[in-house]
Amino acid sequence: MSNDSVNYYEILGVDPQATIDEIKIQRYRMLLAYHPDHNKSSMANEMTQHINAGWEILSDPARRQEYDETLKREPLSNKSTAPQHSPTKSRHRGSRRRVRKETRQSPEQSARYSPVNSERKSKRRTIIWKDRLEKGMKQGAKIAFVVLKISFIVLIVVLALLSFLGGGRRRRSY
Q: Which domain holds residue 90?
């Protein structure tokens, strides 16, 4: 392997038993922290290249297995190429973008994000949306009815005034 001195698990900050989804999430976090557009440190470009190279190897199951076997055969030196500062903050001043610290989800938290619960949430949102629409339509109907009542009252008042003031046809007296 050409990059025997690099431990991609350490660079990405994941366990060797991590799933591809966990590695993908951590890769995204690391790229946000070390991308040269967001991090002006001298090692940002090099770290971005290491992160992408690690993703290429660890995302492919066959290449990952070969890499794991290489790690077992030839243990790496104690010198790590992993970052020396926290990946959750950019090193340059004025950075507004922050990356969340990696947290492991408990079974209760992972159940909160399951597809079944997300489906329930979307149904609940749909119900809430429909309720709001119905409520808005009822309010609109009430307003329209009040406007209709007022216009009818104004019409009656205008007709009464016209008849009282002698409007309309005049009769001739002979």
A: 8-104
Does some domain include residue 118? no
Q: What's the structural domain count of the chain?
A: 1
pLDDT digit string (tens) for 39-93?
888 888 888 899 999 999 999 999 999 999 988 887 655 444 455 544 444 444 4
Q: Can you tell me the distance from the alpha carbon of 156 to that of 22, in angstroms, rounded to the nearest whole number?
A: 74
CATH of the domain at 38: 1.10.287.110
Q: What angle do CA 28, 20, 90 make, to 5 degrees?
A: 20
pLDDT tens, 134-162? Answer: 888 888 889 999 999 999 999 999 988 88
Find the radius of gyration of the CA atoms of the chain.
35
Inside any domain, residue 148: no
The verdict on residue 156 lying in a domain is no
Q: Among 94, 102, 80, which Cα is nearest to 40's?
A: 94
Distant-in-sequence, close-in-space partners of 110: CB < 8 Å, separation ≥ 6: none
pLDDT digits (tens, 9 = 90+) for 108-120: 555 555 566 667 7
